[in-house]
């Protein structure tokens, strides 16, 4: 019987691709007997082109059709097949067959008369030497496996014969078989439609063969076969279609007894796979995972129709396909070979950081010794006191109870949002879980080496030279703002200074790596929790990175998500409800006075007057004050000049970016020093500019290191001079604490007398009224619940006045009655507020006459009151207690769906970020194969490698491809062995 071939061409909107395909059809050595074109949702240009060509039949549709549905529409217009010699040639608009393609496909049927389907070799649309596909199979669990996706065609697959399936582009199928198995599954899109069709054809007892000498060029438009575009939206669509096809086939192929369980487990499986995607640093695929699962779960009619179609065609058992499937061992072997073959020619791993061999370990050790010497007297302490330091809650459970939204034991007590800094303190206290407050002691002792370590790693982003890295780390450790924060007892600023370099290190590569983006997101949240005043500057930098990331902006968009989740409850209560948006920037923790500081001092990177202690040191040493006033700015200016010189050297753009960071820090410091939002007693104080100046020092130090790196060996002298200048400026601040001039001191962790803490053990809600005379003659009254004040229980809602601790004024009236001889009985008021003790805080040594007079009158009134009995003088003041028993105040109930939702959101976002940020073998492999290294092979000198390290990522093009700079070398892999599940061309049909 005469062989008859009908070409079915499916077109959409790409007229240029379609023109080439039609031209290829016309140039066939064995032309198709008929051509049927199916145009769906086609453009006018496509329709005109099809009307101009000698096509036997043209079908048009305004619907969006899949390849299988379009083919079905075209096939319905054909006459019934006369026999097995009628064939359908399936082509899309971007499937251009080479001249001998149809001839070779038909020849393959002559050597394999039992075959139902023959598939061509698919090559790249623009480069016929690149293989894009040649046969498909699936694992024993049903996952699709392509034998080749992108390889150089060296004829290594030309001996393949029988396969489980072939891709749909260019497939030649017997018309009778098409009718017998009812065509493609309409539920499948461009992915796996050919695989499913071939599986059903195999289950009729027929064969599926390859015709490697038949070649079809494919572009990857996404009509037949997976779309190949690298755009983010196309990648999402490809992932969704692939997963949808896999899940759909799983339900279609599943035995009837296990079908229900496969269906029930689809959504739980999507959750589990989402966690795996997070670990594999592919969170962008999670949406596709859930969309695929939901479509299959609620698309029962599609599954039922497909199972009916399969049952109608099936004549042999599934066991006949076993030899053509790929084992898990073979899949693992192929993945291993792909990883080995995937490294670009001349690629090397990122150069060794040389932390120990380059001296980084030594300077960290020296910094550790220095910190131990400076703070050795704190080692026996239980915790630290002074400045903004207070002990932490006594156990880890209490620390974490103070996180989120809940009851706050401040004043009358209230239900409100905790400061995000409470999370940082909970993490810190958990490290020394046996005694949480001791973590503050360790923080002070280890502060210098930790700053050195994080500063050193930040410098690795700017230079490969160990000497410059070391000098940059030393300069960061000796930053005046950091040393002053240690001396004044500002734990939040100390932690922020330590974490800023790590945030910088992760942030500059956030666009290239999901792991770095997740790490940057967590670090951004922690730094912002410690220094909310930095949030505007950090968000500006984030927006800049989003713009520079271009196509990879999706990773960077995730960075502020943990910050939003962490600050959400406080933003709602402080900003939305109270309207005090600026109060969100207040310093967390115990409020202390921020001294006035001039713009000149801020420009020098010093958060206080006195030139970082040099004026006091000059007075002690008898040095002329004018000389010091000139010398310190000159020393800081040397560092700035070294950094500014980088603007006129290679890598100037990187230096400019670092100076922009420094400028943001300076502007933030100036604004912060003029924003007074926090109350210390009855006095308001401004935001401390120290963290902002840490940002300034980060930019200025980084710019200096970058400039020295651009000078190469000629930068040694400027680097040494700048390092000596920073060390000289830092000397007074560095020795401030050991000389006893700082505010920090050892503490046993008690902020109330032992008598009070003993009573609070039995009644944690018991209150102590602390009365503190002020220098202006006023009195500050504070109610302290339980065992005393704790750092993790501080609230900026109260410290900024957004939520009054004494909302009704009852405490003010009560205090006035207590400190005056009024004859008013106040025991009922004390009992109402759960206050049993009254503590008169001692007046400082240097005090005003008004303060002494107020303290004296208060003490006289308290002693004369019959409702109080004098307990005695303690380390923290004179104590009285009520003569009658008082019951402590019970904590208020928190009943809010929003509370649970906000906490759940914070936990979920944190876990997601942690899963993405934790390094895995796959992420390390991706880093190893990072396309940042290019090279060429020199016959005389061997391999010459030029590395573009991640250290230069601040200015790197995030969309740069992994193209070698030198194109004179081509690596030709050896002939690949025939994949498992394929048979050789030598196996003739007689032996099948």
TrEMBL record:
Instruction: Offer one Pfam family short name for this entry.
Output: Glyco_tranf_2_3
Fetch the SUPFAM superfamilies from UniProt: Nucleotide-diphospho-sugar transferases
Q: Does the keyword Zinc-finger apply?
A: no
UniProt cross-references to Gene3D superfamilies, sorted A to Z: Spore Coat Polysaccharide Biosynthesis Protein SpsA, Chain A
User: Disordered: where is this region?
Assistant: 925-992
Keyword Transferase assigned to the entry: answer is yes
Q: Which residues cross the membrane?
A: 259-279, 360-393, 413-434, 441-459, 471-487, 494-514, 520-549, 556-572, 625-649, 656-680, 686-705, 717-737, 897-918
For bias kind Basic and acidic residues, which ranges apply?
983-992
Q: Which GO terms describe its molecular function?
A: transferase activity
Q: PANTHER family, from UniProt?
A: GLYCOSYLTRANSFERASE (PTHR43685), SLR2126 PROTEIN (PTHR43685:SF3)
This protein's name: GT2 family glycosyltransferase
